[in-house]
């Protein structure tokens, strides 16, 4: 199961007005998660156009120039493919975050300062604690709405640093507190550890929102890829365990089923930064046995989806998980859940955290933020 990533480096980059950091990814990381770094979320309208220099890949004939530039830069690092590595090695690979940061540097992109401050929290879970980064708006008295955010990485790689741009972007665009959860990863922590950590963190937020200037009656969940799977599971578990259900959920190219022969898996088997072999690698490392792939916590399309919160689903065209998101949207609608969905053409998995480079990412973050603000009554 997975989202693509491979290096969780806390990257800081000085730009004319600030220090910036981005998140999205195809890797995991080497540096520990910090809680005070700024993050890039968008560039100015006067910046130079960024485009690739080489031909489009065979698997991406529709790829947009900026997205192509990110993928081209990622390939320049020459890292070994993740399926050829151990999890520890894969977590040191470069990520799309690294590629975006390098493109920003090379093209002298200007990044606005963040509109939120960050602090760290340790959240108790079964067998220990998990770290969370809390993004709090710099302006406004509160109580603020709260978003509990889950990063991608196939349950195996990446971290909250790699996905910092997504979390900060959501806070800036919604004026909400974002709690980004560093759930424990496999194979050190096998299924269903990440799922249980995700729910424990959500439950903790419902009980402690007020102490963070948050509104316990306005809590939503958001996740990317593996994190999208986790976010949906949190809503299901909240419903089943009789605690406060999220007021809304945003699922971004979520892992939603286990059949790797869907139209998207076939068409984009060799896509980057996520391909079919990576998904197979993630699955082997997270699950205790392949029979667990049919567990409804992994195959969400087989779960009871009734009485879940209204949902936004965002998918990327050039992505093995494209069909997953489409299938989940259909299943949610069939279960009576209100669903808005948008498929972004010309972009790949992990594009959501790249608004500083990829225009479609800027649109997608705004699309998610608008839905969340409406759910929060803002």
TrEMBL record:
Which positions fall inside the Alpha/beta hydrolase fold-3 domain? 147-352
Would I find Secreted among this entry's keywords?
A: no
Mind listing the UniProt keywords for this protein, alphabetically? Hydrolase, Signal
Q: Name one Pfam family in it.
A: Abhydrolase_3
Is Hydrolase tagged as a keyword? yes
Which stretch is the leader sequence?
1-26
Gene Ontology MF terms: hydrolase activity
Q: Which InterPro entries is this protein grouped with?
A: AB_hydrolase_3 (IPR013094), AB_hydrolase_fold (IPR029058), GDXG_lipolytic_enzyme (IPR050300)
| Name listed for the protein in its UniProt record | Alpha/beta hydrolase fold domain-containing protein
Q: Which organism is it from?
A: Hufsiella ginkgonis
- What's the source species' lineage? Bacteria, Pseudomonadati, Bacteroidota, Sphingobacteriia, Sphingobacteriales
